[in-house]
Amino acid sequence: MKKIALLLLVVSSYAGVLAPAPARVESQQVKTDQRLQYEVVVTRKLIYVLVTDRQGKPVIDLGKDEFTLFDNGKQMSITEFENHALSLPGEERRPAAAAPGLIEKAPAPAAPLMSRTFFFLFDLVFADAGGFRLGRQAAIRFLEKNLAPGDRAAVLSFTGGRSLNVLHRPDGEREAAKRSINSIGLESLRPVAPIRPSTMDDVPTMTSESGGSSFSSRTDTMSGDLNVGRLVAGNFIWALDSLAQTLRYAPGRKIIVLYSNGLHPSYLSRGPYIQAGNADLGNAYQELCHKLASANTSVFSVNTEQNTYLVDQVPESRKGVLSLREITSETGGRFLGDIYAVPDHLEKIDAITASYYVLGYPIWERWDGRYHRIKVEVSRPGCDVNAQPGYFNAKPYLKYSDLEKKIHLVDLALSDKPLSQEPVRFAMQALPWSSSPRENVRFIAEIPVPRLGDVAGPRLEAVSLLFDGLDELVDTRQVELDLAGPEIEGRSVFLQADLSAPPGQFKCRVVIRNMDTGRAAIAKAAAVVPKPDPNALVLFPPLLLRSGGPSAYVWGASTGQTTGGLLGRSFPPHAESYVPIGFPYRHREQ
Q1: d(CA 441, CA 444)
Q2: Helices in 396-527 by DSSP H: which ranges?
Q3: End-to-end CA distance of the chain
Q4: Residue 137 CB neighbours (<10 A)
Q5: Domains of the chain and any CATH numbers
Q6: What tens digit of pLDDT does each residue of 254-273 get?
Q7: Is the pLDDT of residue 478 over 50?
Q8: For residues 544 and 7, what is the distance between their CA atoms, to the nearest angstrom?
Q9: Each residue of 230-242: pLDDT tens digit?
Q10: Opening angle at CA 383, ends 382 and 387, nearest 5
Q11: Which of the four, 100, 344, 392, 461, has the lowest number of CB atoms within 10 Å?
Q12: CA–CA dist 529, 584 (Å, integer)
């Protein structure tokens, strides 16, 4: 059987199996009748409710009979009720001491119906070093002193691309979460985009193409850096949109603690920049806020701007803090202020989120993806109710919209630890092999058919993707596969695709995805395309072949194609392994 052997090898190891995604929707029985059908069952729906008085202090002594809950306008019978009250100031969260003379051991407390999950999100692009450092220190102190039993914590970072870096998955391991935060040093900051454009004349205009991440020039003198800034702002929205999609079906209260300077209002056509011609990106940001709220996820933001900028008395309408206020107000969170002025901001978040109620009621569970609007009322006068605005029914991958499938694909391709699943990993190589600007990068991958597990099925797609350094999609190819046929048995399966790229460094991905379930396998590589130089002799990476047994060859679709052929032949001819050696070598004639 053919194997890929690398003579010069850079190993990227995956230590063990990553923790599962934060939560899974309750399993449904599946019936097969020419297509997947999901049996309708009764399930318990849990709703998080925060109640405060007119002064904003939590009301912690309400009973179940004082609540009324509506689901899509229909009053529901509340069958589950839980009251979570924060300890009084100065008290520690620990069991009360046993009375003298009692030796009988008290029973362990029942697990709460709903717990809190904190997502510490560090923006490493639109942030200042001093504010980032203070935010990191505050997060570590919170994990040491305030994370309650049953709470979970995750650590994420944004570095400019279209996916968030998952440094620590949600769990109760506070020491591991602290290590992840400590691993983000000041050297991790990536000022790849301008935080604060100075004038309206510098602002580029955005087109609606590609979900708000393509740009058109308004003038010939537009700053390239500002163009990149708008691009990275679009990536930030895309990355959080992907997170919202993942958290949509995860139970419990989700709290994002965002450390950032925010997105400058010129990027979102907000405030004095409303005529900047960038309404598409602003609308995408507003839609992101609605998706987070619908996923029962609140954002608590802290402004990390440096003191010197704050002293300049720049009005908020011209600062990124405007976007921080927007995302917190739309998701039911709080804007905590400037980090230099609120060293106790996490204690405030703890106080706001630790006193809450959980209301549960039975409902028919239908896999249709429909949105349910929730309304909660309290009979006691003088109370303000803050409950999640609604929820989405779970739905199978087959019913994902085209945009949801695209977000799913990009997250799989770019995230080292996708929150949606732990994909199967396999090997590939990406070879720059031509000086032509078209189809000059060749992907070669061996599909591990025996290891695909639940990815396998009669309907698979192989998607080859080429991304630049800012995770912009440069080129892609797609082919539908059937790896269950008799012509595959006993053969190694190789995929080849030719993609086009300008000079530069690129991320190369091949995603094998089950078109019925969304389960996936992923291969990753990198490629460097040299600049054309008519006066230089360029040696591209050679392909070394070794004699081997029979194999099947999949052509990964050429330009404009969406399907490819599967040929029962040896490819490469009598080859068992192939390997590129080094990077393109140049020899300039003297």
Answers
A1: 10
A2: 402-414
A3: 48
A4: 12
A5: 116-354 (3.40.50.410), 421-588 (2.60.40)
A6: 999 999 999 988 888 887 87
A7: yes
A8: 9
A9: 888 999 999 999 9
A10: 160
A11: 100
A12: 8
